[in-house]
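Lab manual, section 2.4: Encoding a predicted structure.

Procedure: take the sequence of the chain (119 residues), apply the prediction step described in section 2.3, and record the output as structure tokens. A sample record is shown.
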Amino acid sequence: MIKLTAEMIIEIHDITIQRYGGLSGILCLGTIDYLVARINDEPDRFKKAALALHLIALHPFNDGQKRTGFQVADNILRMNGRCISASKESICCVLCTVAQYNCDLDAIEKWLRENTLET
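Recorded output:
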């Protein structure tokens, strides 16, 4: 399994902001380092992706937390033979729920397992 790095997450964030707009920049590199360590310690691909969605909501960036978290989660799953297949509306709903801290890791993992397909 490929290990994530802080640089990979920052690059995903920068590309996301460049493509969709928003304020670039990092609020807390320590938060990114923490979430990278947590994600890399998890062997299960769905739990890794759930951690990415959940932990990036801790606001390590100036803007684009939800978009970046989703993209990192999707990349984790794609690197491991899965892709998110949910509708745009479903994705927006779950991202807003995560960002409002109304969704725990188990619920995120369950949603990911139910909304992915093998590639």
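Check your result against the sample. The chain has one domain: 6-118.
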